[in-house]
Design brief:
heterotetramer, A: mainly alpha, Ferritin, globular, B: mainly alpha, 13 helices, 2 strands, about 0% strand
Chain lengths: ~250, ~300, ~250, ~300
């Protein structure tokens, strides 16, 4: 893999994570349990879609094949998506959505902070913008995990179920592959493994407050960020997300 | 009766009534109904647009639509807060929405079927809403008037965005133009219905106007809306689906066909294309969310007790 | 509207009804409450898709624009679909699915019996094939409505809810418009209104056995068979149904 | 022990054991496990294919896939009925599936990600299944052997249909060809795993073979499958994702790489890509369906009582 190809892959990973998670979060629109949560979820989705525009926009430039952020979002099939599996998992109940969000947010903030120091100024610039938004996301999702984990018996049970369900998707975000190695070497992105200790500390702290138990297993699903084997969910997401562009190719909207 | 006269005098003098001021029970009741209905409309109004968020054609359009729907939820929040100053809680109002005791704007009982509907909703529905709301910035109840100031600013932004979508569609491919025309065909009359039936048939109008809860007659606003919208449709190259539409030099406005008021009353009775789904969606959100609200409440309570104990 | 255009519309109505309902029923695959029901639902969906091939195949020939049944199924947008609103309603629970099926089946059998006498031999031929399958559908769905209506308190309540929810979609199938009038005049299809009495009798009989009460309202939703105003559901069905053909235009499968 | 010897003698003589015949507890238990697991595989196997029914590219393909999935449910039914002759009910077996006490074939814990997977499942997965099942037509337990005869006939039909899909894809557009290759890449090793680990590591094999519940070793069948499948892949113009694959003249078969048995055991432990979803889907179907089963039972009971009363 050339450096440029790896760089493109990496940018797709960043952009596809925010695209797919933003899509998932936007599915809540109008259906949240509390009005304030409807607003907050829409706000999160909005931030993520905005970040997608930046990451995939840059990805298209780096690729140099004249593909815009929209082309990348709307005209690739599932196998070309590079989001981690966590982001494409279904919303489930509100607790599952917020748990997914928190697990992602903590990783997301950590990598963005690393990317602020990127040797690529464009990357550092995007990261600096995104970090402000994600700081807020992680506070919010963390608070929600705490209050629902340490709420009623039922809310505790649901949050523990969500954590058990989603924990096996955490590992993928931290296990480096050739793309990650190339990025670290070029100083574009931080070493993924270097982020894990702080992640675990943050998790430990929040889950303790939430009275939730982190599963005692380091089993990790994989196949999302490499694109080798997404879950069945991604294909269904794309049928919606890409519908108009697929049905009316070449139109301006 | 003396109090009543003094109250009316304050209103006539253009003073704002504030939450702690004395007010007639009917004024309070009418305001709760009107503000609650308005708030519910913002909330239910998320659904037809939410229906296209996951299918928005570009990232930019998805972001704009998300922001819009978020604004609407925000408007709902201001309005509920405003209504709460009248001594009713948001949960009470929500439950009245969910069991059908309170209404929301009938327009949201129509489906959104193509992307052009996202344009038409912004252009026509928000356009009609603004027409209703601009005068309400001068309404007599302070919290309501202030909420309206904020809301109107955002709504007119939404309307421009909607018109911009329509423009893209109307100047786009033949299929897009067809979508735009189709959206106008379906949403024109329902938009006219948003102003309510002719005042002759409207029951509470007179008292509401004296109280400055209602600032214009339904027919005035509808005329104004038509006069504003028809040239916009022409500019888009779209045809308003009303063969009787004609400029009337004498009145300085358009003559136009009345909507089918039977349909309007049918929709009010619950027989609109989407009434059942809209209420079902809101009820499901509420029911499914109970454990969340309970959990958050329980946690807040634990915190409070923890703090008290620590003191 | 020319006779040919009306004939094309009519064939699309028949084919779109079976296509869309067949799609809905096929969504159950693997998720039914009893294994025998999984098999029966798949069988019903299969029959309906088979009928779709015949109706839309003929529609394409009548239209004379070289569109195959697949072209019609996979490349029209929602506004060109002519199925009645009943068929696109969501599955809901199993009771709702079976109630929708029964309401449709009774109408379907009645019109197919009329179509067996069609002045168009091709139509008569398709109807004769379909009638055998639909006879079985109506028996099955009727039996299910009876046993769940007259089952437990809960099953009764669910079936009554389903009937209340779906009854307003019955009227559309019987209210004739210009297309129906042209078809009746040409002897291609029976007068829709002439089918209603037998439908009501059949409904009355089965609902009585099911201890269910038919809503006392003749309000009827409309807009499906004319295509003027489908429900929001149809568009979502199409994002799935048409995905591959839209994403990979011109491929052979 | 005498009974046991007589039993073994009957089996050795090629007689079929029938439900009412005496049989050792271990024979019964092993058969229940094996037939139940086989039945569950048919049921769970509906899910990965069901995932594409609503996205089938043509009406014909949709019909074929529906018919196939329907057949699988039918196979499940035969096998449950067969297992029930051993004194266990379908509901008992279902509950053991749902709470994880009984297994189903690991292959169904892999996702179906493109339309080519519908081809590859038919070609490879049904192909491997047939390889397992054809010998079982001669198994010692009568009801099982007879179910297998019916099932094998349909399965080989499914396999041909799957191969036909692959052919269309492999000879199609570049994207289709890429889908076909991608499906083969993902499903090759999981298909090899379907025969189970090498017999050296397999615990129950020897007794099962003596009882003619198992007719061949896992390695024999796997070799046979590879030898059959590799030329088919070549004919399709696809590359088997195994760089070590080579014809071995001496053994008259292919040398090939073993699948990753750690992955296999991980999947068995519940860590396959889709274990959680598959079991969740089946549990949801069962739980959501309770009211239906209860309702039907209650109605049948009413009927029965009605008839008795009428007599």
């Amino acid at each position: 893999m050339t450096d440029r190809a790896a760089y493109f892959e990496f940018l797709c990973r960043m952009g596809d994570n925010t695209l797919v998670l933003g899509h998932r979060v936007s599915e809540w629109c109008g259906h949240a349990p509390i009005l304030e949560e409807d607003i907050a979820l829409a706000n999160t989705a909005l931030d993520l879609i905005g970040q997608t525009q930046m990451w995939l926009g840059l990805a298209g430039e780096v690729e140099g094949e004249n593909r815009s952020a929209d082309d990348l979002a709307m005209l690739r099939d599932a196998w070309d998506f590079r989001n981690c599996l966590l982001t494409e998992q279904p919303n489930g109940d509100f607790g599952q959505t917020m748990m997914r969000q928190f697990l992602f947010d903590v990783w997301h903030l950590a990598i963005l902070r690393g990317l602020e120091q990127s040797s690529e100024p464009r990357v550092a610039e995007i990261a600096a913008k995104a970090v402000k938004e994600v700081q807020y996301h992680v506070e919010r999702s963390g608070d929600t995990v705490i209050s629902l984990g340490d709420g009623t018996l039922e809310s505790h049970r649901r949050m523990q179920d969500a954590l058990n369900l989603l924990w096996p998707y955490v590992g993928e975000m931290f296990v480096p592959d050739a793309v990650d190695a190339a990025m670290a070497e070029a100083g574009i992105a931080p070493e993924l493994t270097s982020l894990r200790a702080a992640f675990d500390a943050h998790m430990g702290d929040v889950m303790a407050q939430a009275t939730l138990t982190i599963p005692d297993s380091d089993f990790a699903h994989k196949g999302g960020k490499s694109g080798r084997q997404h879950s069945e969910h991604l294909g269904h997401i794309l049928t919606q997300m890409q519908w108009l562009q697929r049905a009316y190719p070449g139109a301006n909207w | 009766p003396e109090k009543l006269a003094a109250f009316q005098a304050r209103i006539d003098a253009g003073e704002k009534i504030e939450p702690k001021d004395w007010m007639p029970a009917g004024y309070r009741k009418t305001l709760i109904r009107q503000m609650g209905q308005h708030a519910h409309s913002e909330i239910v109004g998320q659904l037809p647009e939410g229906n296209w968020i996951t299918r928005a054609p570009t990232l930019e359009r998805k972001a704009i639509l998300l922001a819009k729907v978020q604004d609407e939820a925000g408007h709902g929040l201001y309005l509920y807060c405003g209504a709460e100053t009248l001594g009713v809680t948001r949960d009470e109002m929500t439950e009245m929405l969910l069991d059908g005791r309170m209404k929301y704007s009938s327009i949201f009982n129509y489906p959104t079927l193509t992307w052009a509907d996202m344009g038409a909703v912004g252009w026509l529905v928000d356009g009609a809403a603004i027409m209703n709301q601009v005068p309400l910035q001068r309404t007599s109840y302070g919290p309501y008037a202030r909420a309206m100031v904020r809301i109107c600013k955002e709504e007119s932004f939404h309307q421009r965005q909607g018109y911009d979508i329509m423009m893209k569609m109307a100047k786009g491919t033949p299929a897009q133009k067809k979508m735009a025309q189709d959206a106008l065909n379906r949403l024109w009359f329902p938009s006219l219905m948003m102003f309510g039936p002719s005042d002759a048939e409207s029951t509470h109008s007179e008292q509401s106007m004296a109280w400055k809860i209602k600032m214009n007659t339904n027919d005035e606003l509808r005329q104004k809306f038509v006069d504003q919208t028809v040239p916009q449709a022409e500019y888009l190259g779209l045809t308003v689906p009303d063969e009787t539409l004609a400029w009337n030099e004498d009145k300085g406005g358009y003559d136009f066909a009345e909507p089918d008021w039977n349909e309007f009353f049918d929709v009010l009775r619950g027989n609109g294309p989407c009434n059942t789904e809209r209420l079902a969606a809101r009820n499901k959100a509420w029911d499914d969310g109970k454990w969340v609200r309970d959990g958050m409440l329980a946690h807040a309570e634990k915190r409070r007790i923890g703090k008290v104990a620590a003191e």
